[in-house]
Specification:
Structural class: mainly alpha
Largest sheet: none
Mean pLDDT: 84
Order of helices and strands: HHHHHHH
Distance between the termini: 20 Å
Number of helices: 7
Number of strands: 0
Radius of gyration: 15 Å
Strand content: under 5%
Helix content: 40-55%
């Protein structure tokens, strides 16, 4: 069906975006996640002029960053920066996915009682609802020991699995 076709397109796009990471898994960067979401959304042609001082129009991924910023998915890391080449954390991934899901009109409702994790003190206040949502919907796997591991990073394989699951999220 359409979800499988989209997943196949996404997988080939990820292989192109992350070739070095396939050889030796290194953490997915913020710009790689944004590029993957942009590709997932159809690689919409977009003006690469974005608001961040650390992403120029010539940078790979500048189009995706400008697109994500204009959609309200990516707000930056403060001080007019995006920190594109820093590994993206699990809590940042959850926030970006939840904002994108809301933008797509998908259900981001949080039922009561999803915060049953053992490391809630480590979750940033701006990310807690989104990380609980991502874990509750099954987008992001729980870490061993009932932990959400908010500061943990993603491997390319983990990102691939998250985006395949994101394709299957139900509309309201």
């Amino acid at each position: 069906g359409p979800a499988m076709k989209r997943a196949a397109v996404l997988l080939s796009a990820l292989l192109l975006l992350l070739p070095a990471a396939r050889a030796q898994p290194s953490p997915v960067t913020r710009i790689q996640l944004i590029c993957a979401l942009w590709v997932w959304g159809g690689s919409v042609p977009y003006d690469a002029a974005g608001p961040f001082s650390d992403v120029t129009q010539e940078d790979d991924g500048a189009t995706a960053v400008a697109w994500a910023y204009d959609l309200g998915i990516l707000l930056g890391t403060g001080g007019g920066r995006c920190s594109p080449y820093r590994p993206v954390t699990r809590e940042e991934t959850a926030v970006l996915l939840r904002r994108y899901a809301a933008r797509l009109g998908r259900d981001t409702f949080l039922p009561d009682g999803v915060a049953a994790c053992n490391d809630y003190e480590g979750i940033s206040p701006w990310a807690d609802d989104s990380l609980y949502w991502a874990a509750d919907t099954g987008l992001i796997d729980w870490s061993p020991g009932g932990r959400l591991d908010p500061g943990g990073t993603l491997t390319p394989d983990a990102l691939e699995n998250i985006l395949i699951r994101f394709s299957g999220l139900s509309c309201p």
